[in-house]
Specification:
OB fold (Dihydrolipoamide Acetyltransferase, E2P), 5-stranded mixed beta barrel, DNA polymerase, domain 1, single chain, 186 residues, Helicase, Ruva Protein, domain 3, 5 strands
């Protein structure tokens, strides 16, 4: 899984860039907003990537921040929203404004995106509302797994240290707790 690229921009187009990383060119699809923020051709860039593996294709989608990547992954997991639609949704505007509009149930946030009418917009908003709230909680000290470990008698620092060693692909709080307990030797 390709999760991050650090290389030189060789070509910029409307929907993608080609990055040279160790003499290999990677075609990375980006939102138009992200492409507009990129430096000029020949400059170095670091981007987070999502590798979409399908039977007929292997595509990379790029993001300028890890938070954008997380939001894309949430969108991509919604039934009926594929990676290209998720990328278009993430291109609507700044991430904070998109989140605010979704939390306010504003269906107009998706206006102008091909293939997303009011019915699909309602479904996406419904599914995203809870997931976005959970994303916001992870930033604070209300980490469910961390709190559970503290309740089990570990110090907050021990809990944080153990959870920081749990692989990033483990998202479920119960699995994170189990992994942390193994690390803590209990």
């Amino acid at each position: 899984m390709i999760a991050f690229l650090d290389g030189k921009i060789i070509l910029k187009k409307v929907k993608f860039v080609i990055l040279e990383v160790n003499n290999v060119g990677y075609k990375v699809f980006l939102s138009q907003l992200s492409i507009s923020k990129l430096p000029e051709i020949g400059q170095d860039i670091k981007i987070f990537t999502y590798q979409n593996v399908k039977e007929e294709a292997l595509d990379l989608y790029g993001f300028l921040s890890y938070e954008e990547l997380e939001f894309f992954e949430i969108l991509n997991d919604i039934r009926g929203v594929g990676p290209k639609a998720a990328l278009e949704i993430s291109a609507v505007g700044p991430l904070d404004k998109i989140k605010d509009k979704i939390l306010k149930q504003d269906e107009n946030v998706f206006a102008g995106i091909p293939g997303i009418g009011s019915k699909r917009a309602s479904t996406i908003i419904l599914e995203l509302t809870g997931k976005i709230k959970m994303l916001g909680q992870k930033k604070g000290s209300s980490d469910e797994a961390e709190n559970a470990l503290v309740q089990l008698g570990f110090s907050r620092q021990q809990a944080k240290d153990a959870l920081s060693r749990v692989p990033g692909n483990v998202k479920d709080p119960e699995e994170r707790i189990k992994s942390a307990l193994k690390i803590l030797g209990k």
